[in-house]
Write a structure and sequence with these properties.
The protein is globular and about 60 Å long. The strands form three sheets. It has a seven-stranded mixed β-sheet with strand order 3-2-4-5-7-6-12, with helices on both faces. It has a five-stranded mixed β-sheet with strand order 9-11-10-13-14, with helices on both faces. The protein has a two-stranded antiparallel ribbon with strand order 1-8. It has 13 helices and 14 strands. The N and C termini lie far apart (55 Å). Helix 2 links the parallel strand 2 and strand 3. The longest helix is centred in the first third of the chain and has 15 residues. By secondary structure, it is an alpha/beta fold.
């Protein structure tokens, strides 16, 4: 008589660590590189124990120069390796923007298809942890603007565990944005879960009255808002974009065609945001399905405050999503 395999309790951090362990175990070309990823175990503890398990050749502590070690990752990828480069927080990635934009994203095009850059860059993003203006950015849309990159935002434990393998299989550079508030998130990971389809968004909650579109750290707040709306008689569908470039516009417009209303929730600033892009796509491709203007819920247009109450006031909250949904539905 067979035994039933149950889902295992874990955290987002542990799921990401297991994804790294699997990648290092199954492919000799894979190595992890970044500041404090080795003996210290990573700034957020994601790589804890991997240095002792795989050694300094496979888990490499890098000097405090993002431009240098991201550039080294580009070179290693060109040489046939499968590097995973960790950048502590998204604001530090700006120090490597030249390597990401002018090298990793463009070399396939500039070489006439002769060069591939199978590089994965992981970084922590987002606010909500009282890290003030320098370490609370949501700059995913800056990178989603760049042709030649694939941009991912795992919002669930399953995606944290299973996005890395297909990212490493991509012959072009992939950026993974991990929201800092998610590392301690806990839940059950199904043993039947497998590699994530990076080309398609996920419907996290089906609904018929309005579509709530979000990604990354805003997913939990949006699901909470959907539950509150359900108690008020509004059946909200929640779409997790998961991949920010290329966008799964078809999933968004198909949902809007069913619900006829949309709210886009994005922790980035409203001006020039991913929410602006999604709203434009809906207007371009699903305008006649809309029964109300598209609503956007974004962060306040200010550098992120340090004080807890000011930070909460600056960030999108579930109550803001509920209010936007009512404006569209009522």
């Amino acid at each position: 008589m067979g035994t039933k395999t149950s889902a295992a309790p874990t955290t987002y951090r542990e799921a990401m660590r297991e994804a790294l362990r699997e990648a290092l175990s199954t492919d000799e070309r894979v190595f992890l590189m970044g500041e404090d990823v080795g003996r210290y175990g990573g700034c957020f503890g994601v790589s804890l124990g991997l240095f002792e398990e795989f050694g300094p050749e496979r888990v490499r502590d890098a000097p405090l120069s993002e431009s240098a070690f991201v550039g080294a990752g580009v070179g290693a990828a060109l040489a046939g390796m499968r590097p995973i480069v960790e950048i502590m927080t998204v604001n530090f990635s700006l120090l490597a923007l030249d390597q990401i934009l002018n090298n990793a994203a463009t070399l396939r095009h500039m070489s006439g298809g002769q060069l591939a850059v199978p590089l994965v860059i992981r970084m922590t993003t987002g606010a909500g942890r009282q890290l003030a203006a320098q370490h609370s950015h949501s700059l995913e849309v800056w990178y989603a603007h760049i042709p030649g990159l694939r941009v991912l935002a795992p919002a669930t434990i399953e995606d944290a565990r299973h996005m890395l393998a297909p990212a490493l299989a991509d012959p072009d550079p992939v950026l993974i944005f991990e929201h800092g508030s998610l590392y301690n998130a806990s839940g059950e990971l199904s043993p039947s879960a497998g590699p994530v389809d990076l080309d398609h968004a996920a419907i996290r909650r089906p609904g018929t009255d309005i579509t709530l579109i979000t990604y990354g750290g805003s997913l939990a707040k949006t699901l909470t808002a959907a539950d509150e709306l359900a108690g008020e008689g509004v059946d909200a569908e929640v779409i997790d974009l998961r991949t920010l470039r290329p966008l799964d516009v078809a999933a968004v417009t198909a949902s809007v065609a069913r619900t006829h209303r949309a709210v886009v929730v994005d922790e980035a600033w409203r001006t020039g945001s991913l929410a602006a892009e999604v709203s434009s796509r809906i207007a371009e491709e699903a305008f006649y399905d809309l029964d109300a203007p598209v609503e956007r819920v974004c962060s306040a247009e200010v550098p992120m405050p340090y004080a807890r109450q000011l930070e909460e006031a600056a960030l999108p909250q579930s109550a803001d999503v509920v209010a936007a949904a009512h404006r569209a539905v009522d």
